[in-house]
Amino acid sequence: MPDTQIVFLLSMPRAGSTLLQRLLMGSGVCKSVGEPSFLLRFLGEGDPILRAATYSEALVETAIQDLRKSWSGFDAAYRKGVHDLSVPIYNGLADGFPYFIDKTPRYSLIAEELVELFPEAKFIVLWRHPLAVANSMSTTFRDGYWEPHSFELDLCYGMDQLRSICEKHASRVHQVKYEDLAADPAGELAKLGAYLGIPNLADVADKELKKGNDGQLGDPTGVKKYSKVSPDSIAEWEKGIRNWYREAWVKKYFTGERAEFFRSMGYDLPKNMREGKVPFGLIDGIKDWLYSSRVINRRVLRPLGSKRRMRKAAAKRGYHVVYR
């Protein structure tokens, strides 16, 4: 079986990666299956990538430290093993197609390891306005309540990892902005096709999108809502910043070096915030606050016991980490 060209499509959750995945699958030369995700079991360790398990993950990490001290070749052998395990899996999943697209949003957490581990792979980083991502997370997964805290690992750490590989490995990474893809799909697909070596990829822009992505994981709303690329969702998120609680979270998140990077990408605060016209929305904001507080207590603090310890760790990082 000939080797398949492995393509990692990296993004934050709710950034439009399923849309781009469906476009690539429509080319006739790309195979993909939902969100493969299996490399998350082999890569990534230490804070903030911790795993909840029936065994003690902390003891496993201690054991691995001992192995490293005992043999300096442990990391190189382990990584080679993960690579050599993965390649035939991707070849099999491709089922004869020349390209296999691994679209797993949480791979943003292990992005640097992937670039180092797969020198033969191609990497697409899909960006979207981070506040659009936060708004979509809340509307899709939290019944419309503003609760981005469960996803701050993606919005902070994952974002930083994607930014890092784009800066350190610029020649190996092709960047796409969701907003540009939605506004000019043919133009963006032409550039992506040149990077991947798919000459007629732009032709997919005029076709009906493939229904689904051949897996159970992916965008649960866009697959049903859109049969073609649409610019309708580009600025729709701005309506979501509509009360004091949401505005306060945005101000805290959109600061410092992170805000400078966002603006360099063309991502700024929503118009109503820039003009000081966000409605106070007292009751609406209280509902968001109450919902968010319950989630933080139930999903962030309780699972690992000590609230004091978890709050201290969150204060150190600047964001909470949810353990699933």
Order of helices and strands: EHEHHEHEHHEHHHHHHHH
Question: What would CATH call the class?
Answer: Alpha Beta
* Low-pLDDT sequence parts: none
Radius of gyration: 21 Å
CATH topology: Rossmann fold
Largest sheet: 5 strands, parallel
CATH-level-2 architecture: 3-Layer(aba) Sandwich
Q: Which sequence of strands runs across the widest sheet?
A: 2-3-1-4-5
Which structural class matches the secondary elements? alpha/beta
Mean of all residue-level pLDDT scores: 89
In DSSP terms (H or I, runs of 4 or more residues), the helix count works out at 14
The structural domain count equals 1
Instruction: Identify the CATH homologous superfamily.
Output: P-loop containing nucleotide triphosphate hydrolases
Q: Percent of residues in beta strands?
A: 5-15%
Shape: globular
Helix content: 40-55%
First-residue to last-residue Cα separation: 37 Å
Quick one: how many beta strands?
A: 5
Provide structural commentary.
There is one protein chain. The protein has 324 residues and is α/β, with parallel strands linked by helices. The chain has a single domain (5-317), classed as 3-Layer(aba) Sandwich (Rossmann fold). Helices cover 48% and strands 8% of the residues. The protein contains 14 helices and five strands. Strands 2-3-1-4-5 form a five-stranded parallel β-sheet, with helices on both faces. The two termini are 37 Å apart. The model has no long low-confidence stretch (mean pLDDT 89). Keywords: Transferase.
